[in-house]
Amino acid sequence: MEVTFVIIDDNKEIEEHPLLFTLEDKFKNVKFYSNPQEGLDFIKNNLDINLIVLLDIEFSKDDKLDGHDLLKEIYNSSTLIPVILWSGINQTNEEFSDFINNRAFGFLSKDCSLEEAMQIVDKAFNNLKNSLDNTIEDWIISNESDKDKPIYFTSSGESYTLNEILKEIRLQTPIGKEFSSKLNSLTIDLLLRKKENL
């Protein structure tokens, strides 16, 4: 599975952090943004690929967005993107509560060891790898002739191929969310009626 790491931090010196070199060696695709709005724009324009975000919390006073705003914006754009908060400052319980409500995947101190950081990064990668959209993508890679087969039909008569459904899920469109919900319900129903075994 290919994944792109998006690092948003206004401290350019962080580009020399050992964690970023390790991410480049292991995953290849690493994008660094010191301007939070540019980082957010990249994320919003690339919702159809696998993204993991490392997000600083505190930005300069000249920036209109801080980590709280960015996390909320990312979550509103897609619930599929693991966002790891990466900070050198201490947060109050109230601020951490805000992050939890906006579904931060995890927290990393900039002072933590490389091993500790990679444990959370690998956990985020595995979470992404086991998601519904990546299961569909793996299926398409293994069964390429299936990608253009219509598999989902709406009540208004529209049909979607497997490849189109993958895109709808990743873009978090109403169709993508509807398909995901119905597929989960169908799977549970089949398991309860012992029609299928996992």
UniProtKB/TrEMBL annotation:
GO biological process, one term: phosphorelay signal transduction system
Pfam families: Response_reg
Residues with 4-aspartylphosphate modification: D56
Annotated Response regulatory domain residues: 4-125
Keyword Electron transport: no
Signal sequence extent: none
Keywords: Phosphoprotein
Source organism superkingdom: Bacteria
PROSITE patterns associated with the record: RESPONSE_REGULATORY
Protein name: Response regulatory domain-containing protein
Organism whose genome encodes this protein: Maribacter hydrothermalis
Lineage of the species this protein comes from: Bacteria, Pseudomonadati, Bacteroidota, Flavobacteriia, Flavobacteriales
